[in-house]
């Protein structure tokens, strides 16, 4: 899959693409990331990419002309009609289901906005989808682009050390959409705190029940909305409901 990232700050991606376990996806081109600076397509000696908003007001607005020229260059290089994604507070929030869909796709063109926003005419004509990371505002879309790329990369075959690792992620349907359980490792006792004996028992059924109970407990405490969703989907067992009743 290929992601073309339109950004005024391509240098922000340099350390991201060569660090951590997900670098395997980028180095092998399982997730092919290409960076495009709209300033390279701007007109005039100053390569201007922004201007004051019509009607007045604070800040600057990214101009549609260099963005459209940049997109045209990407289209000329790509053989497919990849969707254009703009990261914006106006879009729906990215979630696990969305990440899974992108991880099985051919990729997209990711537009990272800056300043007060982008000329609406570019959005109206070229943008297929807007996505948000949450109900807050960032300085630009680069962090959101990195979040999407990282989430997609770790789902690719062979990227994680243990191929089954992502099956136990929070929000995964394999865990019925619940949060993940707590994790422990050596030493068995640290600063007076012992690892749960169930995890040291070697009894796989007991271990799995402990993990399931802790997932339910953490989710009920931190994200009760996920419990409601799992219940509505019929994903909770009688044992699950019995534990939740005790926690209530």
Automatic annotation (TrEMBL):
Superkingdom field: Bacteria
Catalytic activity line of the entry: guanosine(37) in tRNA + S-adenosyl-L-methionine = N(1)-methylguanosine(37) in tRNA + S-adenosyl-L-homocysteine + H(+)
Positions annotated to bind S-adenosyl-L-methionine: 113, 133-138
GO cellular component, one term: cytosol
GO BP, sorted A to Z: tRNA N1-guanine methylation
Keyword list, A-Z: Cytoplasm, Methyltransferase, S-adenosyl-L-methionine, Transferase, tRNA processing
Gene Ontology terms, MF aspect: tRNA (guanine(37)-N1)-methyltransferase activity
Main location group: cytoplasm
Entry's localization field: Cytoplasm
Domain tRNA methyltransferase TRMD/TRM10-type: 1-228
HAMAP family in UniProt: TrmD
Quaternary organization: Homodimer.
Family classification: Belongs to the RNA methyltransferase TrmD family.
Protein name per UniProt: tRNA (guanine-N(1)-)-methyltransferase
Origin species: Caenimonas aquaedulcis
């Amino acid at each position: 899959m290929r992601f073309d990232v339109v950004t005024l700050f391509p240098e922000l991606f340099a350390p991201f693409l060569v660090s951590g376990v997900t670098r395997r996806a980028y180095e092998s081109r399982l997730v092919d990331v290409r960076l495009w600076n709209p300033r390279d397509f701007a007109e005039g000696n100053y390569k201007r990419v922004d201007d004051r908003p019509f009607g007045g007001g604070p800040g600057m607005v990214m101009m549609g002309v260099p963005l459209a020229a940049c997109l045209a260059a990407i289209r000329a290089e790509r053989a497919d009609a990849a969707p254009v994604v703009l990261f914006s507070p106006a879009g729906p929030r990215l979630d696990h289901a969305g990440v899974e869909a992108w991880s099985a796709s051919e990729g997209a063109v990711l537009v990272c906005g800056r300043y007060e926003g982008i000329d609406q005419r570019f959005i109206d004509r070229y943008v297929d989808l807007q996505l948000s990371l949450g109900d807050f505002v960032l300085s630009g879309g680069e962090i959101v682009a990195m979040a999407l790329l990282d989430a997609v990369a770790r789902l690719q075959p062979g990227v994680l050390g243990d191929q089954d690792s992502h099956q136990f992620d929070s929000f995964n349907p394999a865990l019925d959409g619940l949060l993940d359980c707590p994790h422990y490792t050596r030493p068995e006792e640290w600063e007076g705190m012992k690892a749960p004996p169930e995890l040291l028992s070697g009894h796989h059924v007991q271990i799995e029940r402990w993990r399931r109970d802790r997932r339910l407990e953490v989710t009920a405490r931190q994200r009760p909305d996920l419990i409601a969703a799992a219940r509505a989907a019929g994903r909770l067992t009688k044992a699950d409901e019995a534990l939740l009743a005790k926690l209530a």
